Structures are given as C-alpha cells and as structure tokens.
Amino acid sequence: MSSRGRQWLVFAAILGITLVLAFMVAGGRERYTRSRAASSYNPSPEGTKATFVTLEKLGWPIERWEHPWTKLASREGVLVFTDLSSDELYGGHGALPPTREETVALARWVAHGNTLLFYANPDQPLRRSTRELLDEMHIQLQTNSVANAEHRGVWELTRTAQTFHRITPFGVTRAVQNMEGEQNPGFRIVEGAVVPLVVADEGAVHALWAPQGRGQVVVFSSASFIDNQFVAANDNLALLLNLLHELPAGGAVLFDEYHHGYSSEFAMHDFLGLPAVRFAALQLALVVGLLLYSQARRFGEPVPLVVETRRSVLEYAVALGDLYRRADTQLETIDYLYQHTRRELIDRHGLRADATAAEIAARLASRAELRRQWEELAGECEQRLETQRLTRREFGKLARRLQEFRRQMQ
Asked: What architecture (CATH level 2) is domain 30-261?
C-alpha cells in the first residue's frame, strides 16, 4: 500500500472511532444528579422515574414518548405531560416548550377519545404554550406562583408537603380520600366546563377534570402528585390508577419525554450541538490540517528528475534490423518490402489492385532503365518467395536493391 493510502486509512480509523464514541455519549440518558425536571428519567425527588417503574411492574402498557405531539395520531391511550422546570429551560438540557402546531394536534388527539394528564409547573406562571394548550381545550386558569417561587431556591433540598382533604366525589376519585403534594398556590378557574377534583382549604384548585370531545383532560397544579417523593403518599397512586382505567383497548400510557429534551427524531442541528460531536469535529480539523501540512512540506533535499536516454532513428533501425535477422524473417521482410513497393506503383499509375508485375512494367515503358530494374526485382522477389529460399547475405543485397529502386521512383 502506498504512503498516501496508509494516511487515508489512519484518517478513516480515527474518524470512525471518534464518531462511535460520539454516538455512545449521545445515546446516554442518565444526566441527572439533582434536578427539578419532572422526567421519567430523573431519579431525583422531583423526577417521575418511580412512577414509571411502578406502572411498568404493575403490568401497564407503558412507554416513553420521544416524538412531537403531531405524531400522536397513530397512537391511542393516556399521555402524561409534566411541564418544564426552569433548570431544564435555561440549563442547556435541550428541553423545549410545545409549539402551536403541537398543541392543536394534541387537542385533536384528545377529542378523538384519548386522555391527557397535564401536570403544571407551580414555580412559574402558565407560559404561553401552556395557555395555548388550555385555550384549545376551552379552559382558562389563573395562578399566582410568584410567592411560591420567592421562598425557595432552585436547588433547595427541602420541600414543604401539603395534604388535601377536600376531594370531590366523582368517577375518577372513587376510593380517593386524601391527596398529598408539594405546597403551591394552585389554580383559580376563570372559565370552562370543568369539575374540580382536589381543592385546598383556602379554595385553590389543585386538580380539575374537563371533557374534550370523546376524551378527557385532567390538569394538576404540580407534578409532585406523581413524583418520586410523593407518589406513594396518601391516595396519590390510587387517583392515577383510576385515571388510567380509562385507557382504551390496545392503548398505552405515554410519558412525554420529547419536550424534556429526549428525542428519537434525528435533527442534524441537535446532533452537531453534542459536545462529543464537536470534539470529533475538532479532531477531524486537526487531522486534516496535519495532512495538508505534511503534503505541502518537503522533507529532505530535492531529488532531480530522471531523464531518459533518447535513441536516434538510425539506432532504432539498426536494432530493428538485427531483430529481424535474429528471428530469421528474411522472407517475411522481403515479402513486405516487395508488396509495399508494388502497391505504390499501382496507386501511382492508377492500376487495379491485382495488377501483375508485367502490367506495372508496361506503364514504366517511358522510363526504360526503371522498367528494366523493376522487371529484374519483381522476377527475383517472386522467385524467392515461391521457392522459400533466401540466405541472409542474399536478403541484404535484395533489400538494398528494393530501397534503391524506391528512391529512383521519387
């Protein structure tokens, strides 16, 4: 293999190993140490991994949904959506709020007979995307999260628990007597055909049910009702299981992870933004730079070009003649020279291609000496070719006579 081929082979190996490492890093899901993200991948107290694992062990058809809501049309079931936390939005985890197109698609999906469990984020007012989603379902709520956000930091470890005793008797609240979650201000219903399910003593609503076509929507004031810390408290899990009993046949419980930054959709800009891919690009640039530098730099003294020794025409002719002599091709050479001379005479005097030597001689009648030489040469050549006898000495004499005749023809 050439040196250039080896260089490209080494370059391809480095690039391949780097890309494999990049894909391995990109495929990792464990990025949480202490986070408020209500994701089913998050084992922190604010995460919902315990709920996901519990439902999975109870035998529910459960999966993580890592696609936009516009692709829900082909699925049936219950969608669990936990709103985004501040550290997800501003911590560089790739989380993104739902788009307008997604909210319209989700409202249509629920109206076709599915269920949406929406868990709001009590640490901030309802953002625009959340309001658009509720507006699509003809629900208007107000919340005052300023006081709740002021008295705790983002990374505060302690959480104040709140128990809710006022549970509205309803189909989905059967056998539910008390609920417990993290203290938050809750909602105030402004407009909408809704049924309050969980109400605080001061009148704030913390869970409400609303119909949506043939489906239903349940809105919670906080994801703490199903997070790792509170899912086993009081009747939190019982209410969740009651809601899942509305699961249609063949449906599944879908935990939305797409908006928490986990996507099975291949997006080139997201892939190129991965740290491992950027590191691979840096290595690629370094390797290309080294290749360009090594190709453009001269190592060692300049080597002069090898000039081939040129041969004269005479040397070529002598060598060719010697080759014929060694091969004993006297008869073939005389046949070639005789026929070549004969064709020249035929072409010059406009004779037929099969004209005989006598017919050619008749055309040379105006040049007696040339005619005589031709008759002698033609007779001797045809005799030699017919008898197949010609020594090297006789070949040399006859070849020189033919060449002399051709010069006189000029």
From this structure: 3-Layer(aba) Sandwich (3.40)
